[in-house]
Design goal:
This protein is 16% helix and 35% strand. By secondary structure, the protein is of the alpha+beta class. Strand 3 (75-83) and strand 4 form a beta hairpin.
Length: 106
């Protein structure tokens, strides 16, 4: 997510709102879950737990990455991280589960 002052929680500090980080992580984790199932099987967020480790630095883009480490018939399990330049200095990390819906032709 490129930095945009309109996304700041407080215009005086310029720190990006936590909801932006949440949306980014949910999206990236959802994509990781979708990459593990057939294209005709939609996924939906069941649970998303985020640990905010530090505020995002004003003026810097936020990067996110995720890994789907287990996928069953009905549930995908994912870990994600948001950071600026260094994955070892994260802004937030998360664990998430996604429901995998059948198409009725399973």
């Amino acid at each position: 997510v490129a930095y945009d002052p309109r996304l700041a929680a407080d215009p005086d500090t310029g720190i990006i709102h936590g909801g932006v980080v949440t949306t980014l992580l949910d999206t990236v984790c959802g994509i990781a879950a979708m990459s593990m199932v057939r294209a005709d099987k939609p996924v939906a967020t069941l649970d998303l737990r985020i640990d905010y480790l530090k505020p995002a630095t004003p003026g810097k883009a936020i990067v996110a990455a995720a890994d789907c480490y287990k996928c069953t018939t009905n549930v995908a399990f994912v870990r994600g991280i948001a950071y600026h330049d260094d994955r070892d200095n994260p802004i937030a990390n998360c664990t998430a589960t996604y429901m995998v819906r059948g198409t009725g032709q399973d």
